[in-house]
Write a structure and sequence with these properties.
The chain has 399 residues and is of the alpha+beta class. The protein is built from 13 helices and 19 strands.
Length: 399
């Protein structure tokens, strides 16, 4: 009988890969997510109240499934539900990142506290509750500062405050986008932003590559990536060595990691770190250059396979992603230019993420990317230029 994986939360593309690898699946997810799943690939579909079910209820449902159809592996393949998957795996005695590791990758304040205690990164941060707390922090450390959710993702609730006049607007954005999260303020890190992609097994970390990030200067939403990053050997070594120390600090033992780094005049500093694979189609870029699907490695490792020898090294050649963000508010009628973009040299994929009828907001985060392009090049500059030229041909018709 095929191996049985219990997957926690929605992750449509990765769940399709679980099915492709021959696993049977039971999914436990919040009820609103169930409606968007291809339920035909699951043996069982269990819905829980969105935002209301405590961790203990998720664990109880998993225990009940395990009692009637033993589970071989727990697939917590979405960042938003990793803390649930860690609790379930611990209860069932199955492989997964520890609850402590997931807590440190999810809780931005606790992560910074640990890094400061280890002497790895002295960036100051503080949990605050109001404008006075923000202004007190700024008085101690100076503007600019960053306001973000303590447990956030995808730039939801994120603001860069350059002076006291920005506090009111930042608080309004925070309350609108992340009303149930605690507020975290941090020192702003100057420099160029990168990420280090790695894969671990048995506490041994293998660096795959360094990724260059490109961000919208106004919204800070990531609008492109380049793999591997066009960076000199000394800077690359400094970032990778630093990232491996960060992984040890948050006690990563197995699985993928994505450590976001700002490389500035004082060397590498952590923006955030995650016990998961990178977003923004970086997994696809690595696959394009190496022929290795990191999603599949993660799934197989969770099921007990050793994948150490299959983790790819630094890719040869270069690949880049570029994303288009439609400006709202309004309703998307059509995206123009896809065929022309796909016909440009080096373009490997044009993906229209938003469908006609999608409501376009005037608040921007990582979910605001409406279309994307992947392109190859012999050099980083060529790959980036090709991806940007293609994405510039895409226009959004919005009413």
């Amino acid at each position: 009988m095929p191996r049985h994986m219990l997957v926690i939360g929605r992750s449509r593309e990765i769940h399709a890969k679980v099915a492709k690898l021959g696993f049977r699946m039971t999914v436990i997810a919040a009820k609103p997510k169930i409606a968007t799943l291809d339920t035909g690939i699951y043996d069982r579909v269990i819905g829980l109240p969105d935002g209301a079910a405590p961790v203990e209820e998720w664990v109880a449902m998993a225990r009940a499934v395990h009692a009637v159809d033993p589970v071989l592996a727990v697939g917590g393949l979405s960042e938003t539900t990793q803390y649930l998957a860690a609790a379930v795996a611990q209860e069932l005695g199955l492989p997964y990142a520890s609850r402590r590791t997931i807590e440190l990758s999810r809780d931005k304040y606790e992560m910074r506290r640990v890094l400061r205690a280890r002497g790895l990164d002295g960036t100051e941060s503080r949990v605050v509750s109001d404008a006075r707390g923000i202004e007190t922090f700024a008085a101690e450390y100076g503007y600019p500062i960053v306001l973000k959710p303590r447990d956030g993702q995808g730039k939801m609730g994120f603001s860069l405050l350059r002076d006291a006049g920005a506090v009111a607007g930042a608080l309004e954005r925070f309350e609108t986008q992340t009303p149930h999260s605690e507020m975290l303020v941090e020192q702003f890190l100057e420099g160029e932003e990168y990420s280090v992609e790695a894969f671990s097994e048995g506490g041994e970390h293998q660096v795959i590559c360094v990724t260059k990030k490109f961000k919208d200067p106004q919204t800070f939403v990531e609008i492109g990536h380049c793999v591997p990053a066009p960076v000199g050997p000394d800077a690359e070594r400094a970032m990778t060595d630093f990232a491996l120390q960060v992984l040890d600090a948050i006690e990563v033992e197995n699985g993928p990691s994505h450590t976001e780094i700002m490389l500035g005049p004082d060397g590498p500093r952590v923006v955030e770190t995650h016990a998961r694979l990178p977003g923004g189609a970086v997994v696809n870029l690595i696959d394009m250059l190496t022929g290795v699907d990191l999603d599949e490695l993660w799934i197989r490792q969770l099921a007990g396979d050793s994948v150490r020898m299959e983790v790819p090294g630094k890719p040869r050649g270069h690949a880049a992603s570029a994303f288009a963000v439609p400006k709202g508010p309004g309703t998307l009628r059509r995206i123009h230019g896809a065929a022309e973009a796909a016909g440009l040299p080096g373009v490997a994929l044009v993906k229209l993420i938003f469908e006609p009828g999608t409501e376009i907001s005037d608040v921007y985060d990582s979910d605001s990317r409406g279309a994307g392009v992947l392109a190859r090049g012999d050099t980083a500059g060529a790959a980036v230029s090709r991806s940007r030229a293609a994405v510039d041909l895409l226009t959004f018709e919005i009413s």
